[in-house]
Sequence to fold (633 residues):
Amino acid sequence: MTNLKSLRNMIIKADRVLVFFFIFVCWSRSFALEAKILASDGAARHRFGFSVEIDSTRLFVGAPGMLSDGDFRGAVYIYEFSQNELEWIEVQKLDINDEELNLFGASIAQSDSFLIVGVRGDSLKNPFGGAAFLYRQKPDHSWELVQQLFTPLFKPTDMFGFSVAIDGNYAAVGAPRGGGRLPLSGSVYIYHFTENAWILDAKLVATAGLPIDGFGSSVSLAGNRLIVGASGVDGDEFGLPQKQQRSGNAYIFERDEQGWHQVAQLTPLDGNAGNMFGRTVVIDGDYAAVGAVKDDVLDFDDGSVYVYKRDDSGWNQEIKLTALDADSGDHFGAALDLEQNYLVVGAPGVNGLGQNSGAVYSFLRTEEGWSQRAKKMPYDAAAGDFFGAAIGVSEELSIIGAPHKKVEEKNSQGVAYVYDNIADLALPVELASFTATCVETGVRLTWLTQSEKDNLGFILERQESARAWEVIASYQTHEKLRGQGFSTMPTFYEFLDDSVQTNRTYHYRLADVNMNGTITYHEPITITISAAVTFAESSMPGEFKLYPAFPNPFNPQTMLRYNVPYNTHVHIAVYDMTGRRVRTLLSQQQNAGFHSVMWEGTDEAGELLSSGVYIIQCHIETIVRTQKVLLLH
Fold:
């Protein structure tokens, strides 16, 4: 759990202003703080958070370990929320002791009083076999094993249990290397609970399956509908000598009185070989979402998610979702879950705070369609966490896995985080419009909010050509950009960018900042200023000024804004409390104007620095400005 007491004691040693700011941010909306979930007996390489499930009062977290971990063959941890302690309490650990099996908990699914756990084969004795274990909750709330499922054909290479799903009295088990329409094309087994046993109800295969399709690499079950992913499989993951270059497919089945029938084959309209479309799937009512984790949308392997809707004509692609800030290797869509009109997508390859620290994105469906609502990274994000590798969403809460997070020097012990869907993963500002207009004195930016929730204010960024985004204004420096806090009424904002030039194209991006410091970006807009435009003389800063860093305290990054009154060399560096320089942020010639720089809390080598107070020094010629910032983990 998050140890707020130890954090508070550490912060008290810093400046009083910083103490007050942190207390205001964290305790004014305490229910919006993320809950950090750890295994009571966690150890290195356990990969706690590799799979997750959640309902209103319970958490289920898989820790499958790794194939070479000897006696540890995986476990599933169960948590219940204590109203007295106001925290999640570990109530039970499920595990196995079978030399033929390993990676217990690599896949899990839960529905009411049933839990199904996927198990994969041992690295030496049964490398591609597998099983599924079914548990049932007893009246005393403990969980007991009621049945073990193995591939009915007893083929040790099926990868039976690679994926699992359950809803009510039906369960699905994927075997992506199983014999389907053709050898190794994959299959899915459906089980039905009758009286006191789970009975095989059907074996499903793709009507157009090909060898090595990976049919069954992902499954999702909702009522009488099942969606199955056939991602074209990655050779490394499925024990094959090479990667299969196929775009992938997803298949939807429905159950009626005659049994299960394939009703749709979903293929992306713009699919390309190697996209791994179908590596993740989810279905809920008349909507389905399919992840293509290696889709090259804006960059290499940034990933995408396709959303399909069922109508009178069948299942049709409604939209293709990507992250607004997509980057190479994000693997957006590596995990996803859908709850009614709310979709959460994992991108464990995001380099938010170090390589593969990870992030999740939330999307909401309204009458206007789907839109990104927020991007979330944990407060203690670090390189190699793979946050967003697993996702579970309930009506009110979401659980996110970071299976490779390092805990107290134990590599890949893993962590899971719980968030409130509204307080943590929803957009604090509903933006109705954002426009840019060329006027006599520059570019006039206007935006209208329909409502605001816990909104401190806005940040405006500008980008020219291939340059990085640059902050041109924020609520800290411009009173007109301060938010309304909480408002259900429309609010109009405007800002004049008077530092633009003719015959240029500019991109503008608006971000809002909520009470706990989360920054959420909205879609950028673009304006081109023709050479025929004549501007009045632009105003320039009259003095060298350093603005307060924001946020402060910070994690994972803070922004420093400053004004330069004339063309000169600018040097900005970070020092620890002993006076040792730990990072040079900037040392270059800059033109007169309004500038900004970001610091991610790292040293010159890119390594994350320890929590504490640091001094940022900014100087031009003989003028020096300094300020303190507090880095928290």
